[in-house]
Give the backbone structure.
Amino acid sequence: MSGFVSFVGSGPGDPELLTLKAVDRLKRADAVLFDDLSAGPILSHARRGADLVGVGKRAGRPSPKQDHVSRLLVEYAETGQRIVRLKSGDGGLFGRLEEELVALRAAGVAYEIVPGVPSAIAAAACAGIPLTRRLTARRVQFVTGHDVSGALPEDIDLDALADATATTVVFMGKRTFPRLAAALFARGLPKSTPALLAENVSRPEQSLHRDTVSGLSKRLAEEIGTAPALILYGPLAESGHD
């Protein structure tokens, strides 16, 4: 007997940002496999008696290997249970969703995808800024700040990322941002381009730091901390409120 898996985006961390469908799937699940950033109050919506299994991966910390997570997901589903795979933000944005989908398809397990509020959207909302603005920021680009080894990706499109008229959001990029910034300056990005470091988005310990790309690069070269973060830069990060 094969069960059913719901890939549920939990949003950036604030349980009030969960969708109604996400709450419904949590209440009906026999087991919840959750990311680190989906823990805490969000899990209070899980059904009493459901198995709660932490499988989160965090940079610089001991974490389950992806093949182990995928195998565990299949094993739970093969017991015939309803499973929620709870992913922070939206699972389709740098959430390693595809690897787990491939594993389920190979095992013949049915699934659905429940989208969540992307952390980039939540960060802009918390900062009081839009991601697009008529005439000055018609394009938004999302990019990961590191590859599987933790380094800045070698094939990253630096020319596109140096476009000062685009709003750029860098996921998981605190450690590599100084190197990225230097490469962007070499391609013409003004050092004075506004930047925003958003840490612990939507959580009680949220921190928003406004700077320039140059200033933020220097800050992160000295100290990156352990808080999960996004970096936004472009024509929009200069407005809004803290």
About this structure: Residues 4-114 form a domain with the Cobalt-precorrin-4 Transmethylase; domain 1 fold (CATH 3.40.1010.10). The chain has two domains: 4-114, 119-233. Helices lie at 20-28, 66-77, 97-107, 119-127, 158-161, 177-186, 213-222.
